[in-house]
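Please, does this match?
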Amino acid sequence: MSAEIDVAISIEDEAWTQALPGAEELCRTMVLATLQAAGGDFDGPAVEVSVVLTSDTAVHALNRDWRGQDKPTNVLSFAGLDDDEAPVVVGAPILLGDVIMAFGVCAQEAREQGKTLAHHAAHLVVHGTLHLLGWDHEEDEAEAEEMERLEAVILSGFGIADPYAEGEGQGS
């Protein structure tokens, strides 16, 4: 992975920084680890990933408007490579996409699953970043299992338990 990778972090809900002071560095680290582990061949132009840490209200609106789901969710991914109408500018970075996380849902899930917010957020960043790279768990059971295994491998490198293992609570 020799291309320049820019990870832009935007914190729109201060609850994230209050509950997770290292949120920006955590997100940046997990995006980079995921891109490396997923074997992305980034030898060409620079790439950019955006991570937005926001509120349940903001994610609820996005989930309703873009997915037809009238409720908040933990993480949404919008892959830039899926947009056939996106302009291509020679020399400009390739926008892999956006990972958007809802504070209240993530914090509630962490509590219910007996995890720290840091570990749960790390998992969701990995999960969301894999979606940006084209991974999907909705349509193909084998791909879902492979995605879960890759998530577990990435997280284990940081001492984070497999979120799909028995007794570790639900995955995302």
Remarks:
- The helical segments are 15-19, 23-37, 56-67, 103-113, 117-132, 141-156.
- The chain has one domain: 5-135.
